[in-house]
Amino acid sequence: MKFFKRFVLSVIMLFLIFPYGFASAENNSNDKPVKQVVEENYHTVLKTWEKEGVKGVSDFETSISPSQFLKVNEKNLLPETESMGYDDRVFYWHNQESAAYEIDAPKDGLYELSFDYYPLNKEVVPIEGAIQVNGKYPFYESRRIVFPSEWKNDRDKFQKDRFGNDMIPKQITVPKWMHVSAEDASQLQSGPLKYRLKKGKNTIELANLSGEMLLGKVSVHSPIKLPTYNEYLENYKTQKQVSTVVTQEAEKNYTKNSSYIRPEAANDSSAFPKNTKNLLLNVLGGDSWDSSGQSVNWRVNVKKDGLYKLTFKVLQNKETGGPVFRKLLIDGEIPFSEVAPISFDFNKKWSNITLSNKKEKPYLFYLTKGQHEIGLEADASPVEPVIHTTNDIMREIEELTLEIRKLTGNQTDASRGWKISEFIPGIDKKLAGWADRLEKERDYLRNLDSSKEDSKDIVSLQMAIKKLRALSKKPNEIPSRLTELSEGSSSAAQMLGNILEELPKQPLQIDRFYVHGGDKDLPDAEAGFWEKLFDSVKKFFLSFFSDNYSAKETDDQTLEVWVNRPRQYVELLQNLSDQNFTPKTGIKVKYSIMPEEQKLILASAAHKQPDLALSISNWLPYELSIRGASVDLHQFDDFEAFSKQFSPGSFLPMMVGDKVYAMPETQDFFVQFYRRDILEALNIPVPDTWDDVISILPELQRYGMNYYTPMAGATGFKPFQATTPFIYQFHGDLYGKNGMSTAIGSEASLKGIQFMTDLNTIYSMPLQVPNFYNHFRYSTLPIGIANFTTYIQLKSAAPEIAGWWNISPQPGVKQKDGTVERWSPGSGQSAMIFKGTKDKEKSWKLLKWWLSEDTQTEFATSLQTMYGPEYMWNTSNIEAFKKLPWPEEDKKTILKQWEYLHEVPKNPGSYMIERELSNIWNRIVFDGVNTRSAVDDSVISINREISRKMEEFGYMKDGKMVKPYPIPTIEEVKSWAGDKDEK
């Protein structure tokens, strides 16, 4: 009966997924392209308008004050006294509020929208909105409009750390009224977005997505047209060049629109200033200034009216070797079209680039006496056509791959013949057409680059073209050659994906720039040969005496801490400790970058261990503790009170009985990510339980989409984080009584394992997904369960969908009382004290300071504002987590999921349980083995290995238990905080 039931369900699901069969791709009319679910992108819509003859309206401008907004909440309409100096009433725009206003357009045409605003955010959470015209989003980019804040260093002079190196200063916002036009959030368009308004009344609505600000007047005006250089110069034909040189160091006297554009230390003889011994912050930018739209404005004082040249000393060593682009701004405005943008070619050496025309004749800029702002804005708009075409072709490749899989039943046997060209007529022309389009983009990229050698982007395009042409000549072989088309690291789709990732990046490092006139000679960009040689020799000898964050023994009065993190984390931690911890306690601390965390076991065996270790994997303290190398933290009187600040389930892998050998430092989370725009378009509700997930699968799969679980991301071996949620959610367990055997053979555990495998065998969830992040961006997997890593990727590297995806607690199993149990692991990093520490009490005091609410909050905020949104610190301290500069709704969701955090407790044989759970899944899904049979076989192997390990560590002898091995539970941890009755 069970087999028959599964067979019937499989047939039903196949019918729901492929209602028109496999006979012809033309019959799959219901398989709408994914991109039609939401609006077309701006590039496509603008081309359509141009074909229809719709043009920009000239000589029109009107402004609307907040008092004229439609249907506003009166409490958000602030009086002039609360307007921050705006001299008019303003609208407090926050918390998903909307501001709507009406425009009487003189005629049908294209207009631009702009806004006066005062940012209220003092954190890195962006201020974002969405614009609808007459109740609709005219194009997808209108779903996310960004209102940037202005940032600066909190001090002009750099402080020194304990080693004499410059420290990156803290970042603060500049409180001021600003003006911005509605622009593409990805900053891939060359100018502001253009909106089509019909003649007569039009309603424009600005909805809040995140952040808060004061909104002043909103404007609708004709598209702004920049003058040419000749037109610009005509206005200053009576002015003369000024024969002087003003030198501006790039790392000083500037503001920026991203907190994490930062000064860097170029340990280079050619950078100024230089120091062969210490690290000086002497250049600006590089990888921290590589996103389109990021801008820097330097304050420059000019002594005399006149015409000046601009020369920038830059290092442009983009990894792919292509050019990068910048817009020039003078006092916030682009002076003429030829400097929007400027190209900086790849060059591994420092070079002086004077802004010039194609004939290398320098441009002249008119500046009056006094202070001016000279700005550069990263600009990826020149490569937007290539990105657009590549994106389109990638989507079409995915659609074609899906059609082929449906036709072949996902069978890729190379020995089997297919006549794909009969089922998909014109497939050869389609592939050749893609190659033709990509060839045009390749030639276009070559025209942008004046370098002699092709960049890696061009090489990748060429290789993709070659593969597509080869496949177009033998289309019937495509089913067995999908690795060349769309699957695997060397496929055409993967190469195009790499281009989409790298091409928009615009890194540029600036040492200084010159505002100069006449024929004044400028200093050489590169240091001379002898100067470089002398500096190299000096650095070589100094390297023997440098101890910057290296793992070396300390004196008896200084705690030695090894940190398993990159340099920027350790620098910040050392500075915080020197400023806050040591002055208050008198305890000296030296932090060192850990060479490799596995060496802790060797260091402990050789009695060369540090006092503490931070940011280590949460399994490592257990391995050290059973070998007698860790301090039991439960012995400290205030441990239980301090533990209240952390999730109870996070302690389980660091415990042996009631002893605790480490503290959780960071904490992961597995939540449900979903594309709000896709689900709204398909009228699909956000699932709350696994039954809900199953109910939405037919509709998703009908559109060529699916649901993702971490099981699909674990390509071979399935770790605990992928398998145990199903066991715990169905009230199963991994361990039997006294920890001497496994409990995965119990009825509850079997039920969880059965459901885990049914998701693939019956409900057709994907078996393998190498990169959920990319599939989520391109809408093929618009919903699924993922962790903190995916959250960072989407927050920092998916601007095109920002504001239109969200998270919710992961689905769980509904209980009889109506609650939903969502148990899931959340492995992060941990921190521990070694038994060989100089002073246990001092080490415990340091550990408490580091993991305290105040320290974790300051560390997380400083890290993100200085280094960017990708440097999110997922602290394990729940009270500190509530104060992080993350969106409030996201924090609420994560905290709700953390209520069900259930890490896997350890016993000496737990690795075998993890391995066998993975084997069970493989045997059931791929080999069709009965669930009970697969589990029973694994139970034998697991119990045998647990007995062997228990003998090794003295818990068993000759097959009999000597002493029990109690498995720690969440209830036991909760009892420390006095929650004994809590379930």
Automatic annotation (TrEMBL):
Q: What SUPFAM superfamilies does the entry give?
A: Periplasmic binding protein-like II (SSF53850)
Keywords from UniProt, A to Z, are:
Signal
Q: Which Gene3D superfamilies match?
A: Galactose-binding domain-like, Periplasmic binding protein-like II
Pfam families attached to this UniProt entry: SBP_bac_1 (PF01547)
Q: Where is the signal peptide?
A: 1-25
List the coiled-coil residues: none
In which domain of life is the source organism classified?
Bacteria
Q: Which InterPro entries match?
A: Bact_solute-bd_prot1, SBP
Q: Protein name, please? A: ABC-type glycerol-3-phosphate transport system substrate-binding protein
Its ancestry begins with: Bacteria, Bacillati, Bacillota, Bacilli, Bacillales
